[in-house]
Amino acid sequence: MAGLGKRPMAALAGGLALLAGAAEAHHSFAVFFSADKDVIPLTGTVTEFHFTNPHGIIKIIVSGAGKADQDWSIETNSPSILIRRGWNKDIIKVGEVIKVQGWPARDGSNYMRLRDATRADGTPIGSKPAGTP
Amino acid sequence: MRAFRSLAFAAALAALPALAVAAPPMKDGHPDLSGFWDLDARVPRDAALMKRIAPNTAVLDDTGPVEFPRGEYGGLKLKPAAKAAADAWNPKDDLTVAKVCQPPSIIYAMQGPFPIRIDQGRDIVVIRLQYYDMVRIVFTDGRKHLPASAPHTKVGDSIGHWEGDTLVVDTDHLEPSTITNNGLDHSENVHVIERFRLSPDGRTLLSTQEFDDPQTLDNRGARFVAWKKLDGQFLEPYDCDPSFALNYGSGKPR
After folding, report:
1. What is the per-residue pLDDT across B101-159, written as a single tens digit (0 to 9) for each?
2. B197 FRET partner, CA 20 to 30 A, in A61, B10, B163, B189?
3. Mutate to test the interface with B, among A31, A71, A107 (most CBs of B within 10 A)
4. Which domain holds residue B101?
């Protein structure tokens, strides 16, 4: 994972978990999300975008091949950090199609922590990946 | 030969401004810590600060964007009651409108991956954190701590003094709050010592944070925290929005 800082991956294997962004007082990335699993990709149509701290929220509808539509909520890094990565409250519009990758919630719900996001044509959203420190 | 010496002298003169710029800034006879500082977890631990950490101290390796998973405390020795509380902790209980915007104390907040801004005066040092818009005032005018009856807060009561090039900050009167982000909290009796110094070029702020809480721990804890100076930057407002708590688990099949 990019931007890990001073710790090698071996340190992660030794018991530490990567927090993909801002740590909250009681909102532990390590407890809520599966950093030890592969990130999952989603493509969907935006229904809501909230750009407020402690975390932004992107809500999308994912239409799968032959499956019922799914509502997904995607939690972003702290907007106060994302602003320095080229984000703002208008960077994602309701109705647009975006592609996201992120770490899934441990409880199996349709909830994930964002690692990176692109427009439908693959153009990155923001100047750096959203989920790297 | 004379021409060579002249050239060497001229080269040395030309280098002087660069050397002057590289020296740490000074203010009122002390290194000036003022500026916008962005946390950088890649900075190696500073040997001069690390050797001042007291014996029987676990130095936590979770500064910045790394967290301990459940049950891992980085060498801290928990009292039975603290261990029981951490074991019983349900993180979803904290994802409520009432709780999600409660800031941690400075013990956890200072090591988070957020920038800080320092404004240093003769008698006070103001440390503002982007994280939860926290503001710390460190009195360096020689005063003592507040009386025991004074309220405890998330920033506590901080008094500081200079030891050579190092600002030593002593904090008590903290409200119980997070030590590690996995259910381990400190008590209201925790005592924190922080040491801050600049790198030789003045562009890196180096610090250690030591905390002692006999009500919670059988040993002491510490972290090394460092920030890089960024010019022309300002803190962004945090303005925590508690409605975030309503979104957790909101995704579902239609």
Report:
1. 999 999 999 999 999 999 999 999 999 999 999 999 999 999 999 999 999 999 999 99
2. B189
3. A31
4. 25-234
Conformational region of residue A95, where left means phi above 0, alpha means psi within -120 to 50, and beta covers everything else: left
Q: How many whole angstroms from its chain centre is CA B6?
A: 49
Q: Report the residue from A32, A69, A133 with minimal CB separation from B91.
A: A32
Look up residue B231 and give its two tokens.
């010019």
Looking at the structure of chain A, the number of domains it has is: 1
Query: Which residues of chain B are within 8 Å of residue A23 when distances are taken between CB atoms?
Result: 65, 67, 108, 112-113, 181
pLDDT, tens digit (0-9, with 9 covering 90-100), for A107-122: 888 999 999 999 999 9
Q: Which of A26, A90, A121 is nearest to B86 (CA)?
A: A26
- Cβ-based burial of B226 (10 A; exposed 0-12, middle 13-18, buried ≥19): buried
Please state the rounded mean pLDDT for residues B206-234: 97
At B78, which CATH number? 2.40.128.20
Q: B133: which 2 tokens? A: 């818009």
Q: B55 is written with which tokens?
A: 């014996």
B251/A70 touch (CB, cutoff 8 Å), yes or no: yes
**CB–CB contact A21 B103 (8 Å):** no
A15 to B62: CB separation less than 8 angstroms, yes or no: no
**CB-CB under 8 Å, B41 with A6:** yes
- Strand residue runs (E) in B105-203: 116-120, 124-129, 135-139, 157-163, 166-172, 177-180, 184-186, 191-198
Contact flag A73-B177 (C-beta cutoff 8 Å): no
pLDDT digits (tens, 9 = 90+) for B24-37: 899 999 999 999 99
**Is position A100 within any domain?**
yes
- The whole domain housing A57 covers 9-119
Give the percent of chain B with pLDDT over 70: 89
Number of folded domains that form chain B: 1
User: Is residue B30 classed exposed, middle or buried when 0-12, 13-18 and 19+ CB atoms within 10 A define those classes?
Assistant: middle
